């Protein structure tokens, strides 16, 4: 009888772990689409401080931005940006994203954030367990050029970004485990996306089951920036 209950308990733990990982791999393409950007493509050029300093714009920032977007300087910069974007799109070379080998532990306020965001009345039980290793073969990108490598394959610390490679590395990403509510209809996980030394962002990602029973992103909130 004791052996029977032990086996049942073990099967439930495995089932919970399998469920969590299944959800992670299902939601991963949508998360990647939401946080990925090609660092080779510069952002739209902002106006200079001298432009905003003009007397006519001191009390009307919206007018300043509107006029700047009509200027030849802005149009020329956007045209250059478009050509760069088209060039990157036509380039079929692989883009590598480096992934932390394992999902990290929950953050201490995840339960509170999950409860507050989805207005969950019941208390959320944080179930401790092993931080699972991410299977790169299970990671899917909607961009066929994107490939994945483990972080452990590269130098540690800042040497990772200082080292030259024979291929383009777009970013280093990592995720925490997913914390679910008791009904397993809502969840929250944390992610980090870095593109260089002191150049990255952190995210808290709220997910939920939609009306079709599929997992979808409800909201992504920035948590840190470097």
Write a structural description:
It is a single chain. The mean pLDDT is 90. The chain is α/β, with parallel strands linked by helices and 226 residues long. It has six helices and seven strands; from the N terminus they run H-H-H-H-E-H-E-H-E-E-E-E-E. The N and C termini lie far apart (55 Å). The longest helix has 34 residues, at 2-35. The protein has helices spanning 2-35, 49-52, 61-70, 72-90, 110-118, 159-162, and strands at 95-99, 146-150, 168-175, 179-180, 186-196, 199-209, 215-225.
Gist?
Helices cover about 35% and strands about 25% of the residues. The protein contains 6 helices and 7 strands; from the N terminus they run ααααβαβαβββββ.
Features of this protein?
226 residues, alpha/beta, 6 helices, 35% helix, 23% strand, globular
Q: Largest beta sheet, briefly?
A: 7 strands, mixed
Question: Averaged pLDDT, please?
Answer: 90
Write down how many β-strands occur, each being a DSSP E stretch of 2 or more residues: 7
Secondary-structure element series: HHHHEHEHEEEEE
Tell the overall outline: globular
Question: What oligomeric arrangement do these chains adopt?
Answer: single chain
Instruction: Determine Rg (CA atoms, Å).
Output: 22 Å
Structural class: alpha/beta
Relative helix content? 25-40%
Strand content: 15-25%
**Gap from first CA to last CA:** 55 Å
Annotation field: number of helices: 6
Query: Poorly predicted ranges (pLDDT <50, ≥5 residues)?
Result: none
């Amino acid at each position: 009888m004791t052996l029977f209950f032990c086996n049942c308990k073990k099967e439930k733990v495995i089932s919970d772990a399998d469920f969590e990982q299944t959800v992670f791999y299902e939601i991963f393409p949508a998360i990647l689409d939401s946080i990925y950007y090609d660092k080779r493509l510069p952002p739209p050029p902002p106006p200079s401080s001298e432009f905003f300093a003009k007397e006519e714009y001191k009390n009307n920032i919206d007018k300043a931005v509107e006029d700047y977007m009509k200027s030849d300087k802005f149009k020329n910069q956007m045209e250059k940006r478009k050509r760069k974007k088209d060039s990157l799109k036509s380039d079929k070379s692989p883009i590598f994203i480096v992934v932390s080998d394992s999902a990290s532990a929950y953050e201490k306020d995840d339960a509170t954030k999950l409860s507050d965001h989805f207005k969950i009345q019941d208390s959320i039980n944080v179930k401790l367990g092993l931080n699972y290793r991410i299977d790169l073969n299970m990671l899917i990108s909607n961009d066929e050029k994107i490939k994945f490598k483990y972080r452990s394959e590269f130098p540690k610390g800042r040497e990772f970004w200082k080292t030259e490679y024979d291929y383009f590395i777009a970013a280093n990403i990592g995720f925490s485990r997913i914390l679910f509510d008791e009904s397993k209809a809502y969840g929250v996980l944390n992610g980090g996306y870095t593109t260089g030394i002191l150049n990255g962002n952190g995210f808290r990602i709220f997910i939920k089951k939609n009306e079709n029973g599929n997992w979808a992103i409800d909201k992504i909130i920035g948590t840190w920036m470097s």
